[in-house]
Specification:
Elements: H1 2-33, H2 39-55, H3 61-68, H4 76-86, H5 96-114, H6 116-140, H7 161-174, H8 178-194, H9 198-223
Helix pairs in contact: 2-5, 4-6, 5-6, 5-7, 6-7, 6-9, 7-8, 7-9, 8-9
């Protein structure tokens, strides 16, 4: 019994260290503001749902393709213009509920923890990294470990998965959930080893793009006197803990 209690205590201690700041931030926001804490996320869920309905209509499929569909064979400028909306166009070969669940969970946590502006910035950076990698991978060819077959140039590249992976890694870094962030990275590497396709490699590219952002921010924070990388305090507090009320 003593051994079991010790194990439970260690597990509880690990959970508090790993997820305590993140949990406290998300819970406080949802308890105090409820759905008002994630207006951008709810808008993204609604937008994705609308795109899903429209692209499954005979009259709407081509319109959605024209504004939010990205292929590596497309000219670069139109692809870049379509990339922001491509986050919210669900892949036709995957169940839409998966995309909606990813957006609601990961975008919601990121919006609370990072704010709307930074969430959109990181999501776009991760998606853009995947989009640009596809072009590089096809140029390298299938004989390169980082390359892709020429047929992937015609694959429709949409959906929130690259943004979700990138946001997950960034939030884990910002809130010091190091083991969770490492697990996300390992899972994406295993995905590529098991199913070596465009989507899996784009997830790795998204992680690489976000880690580059992390490295730049860490370097900038190290250069600022009195600044340390890690958990960002919420407005009105000096740490992630709720403010003291007398």
């Amino acid at each position: 019994m003593t051994g079991a209690r010790t194990a439970r205590g260690r597990l509880r201690g690990f959970a508090i260290r790993e997820w305590g700041p993140l949990y406290a931030t998300v819970r406080t926001a949802l308890v105090t503001r409820r759905w008002r804490a994630i207006p951008m996320t709810l808008t993204a869920v609604c937008l994705t749902s609308v795109f899903q309905i429209v692209q499954n209509q005979d009259w709407g499929y081509q319109a959605v393709q024209d504004i939010g569909s990205v292929r590596a064979e497309d000219p670069l400028l139109p692809a870049l213009l379509r990339t922001p909306l491509s986050l919210f166009v669900p892949a036709l070969d995957l169940p839409v509920w998966g995309a909606l669940a990813q957006i609601l969970l990961v975008f919601g946590i990121a919006e609370i923890c990072l704010g709307r502006g930074r969430t959109l910035l990181i999501a776009y950076a991760a998606t853009l990294a995947g989009t640009l990698y596809a072009r590089l991978g096809i140029a390298l060819g299938p004989d390169s470990p980082l390359g892709l077959p020429a047929s992937d140039a015609r694959v429709v590249d949409t959906g929130p998965s690259a943004a979700v992976v990138g946001l997950a890694v960034y939030v884990c870094w910002r809130y010091r959930a190091r083991w969770t962030g490492t697990l996300v990275v390992v899972a994406m590497v295993v995905e590529v080893l098991i199913k070596n396709n465009l989507a899996g490699k784009e997830h790795i590219a998204a992680i690489a793009g976000v880690l580059l952002v992390v490295a730049v921010q860490w370097w900038r924070e190290r250069r600022r006197p009195g600044q340390r990388g890690g958990v960002e305090p919420r407005p009105g507090t000096r740490s992630w803990k709720p403010p003291i009320r007398s």
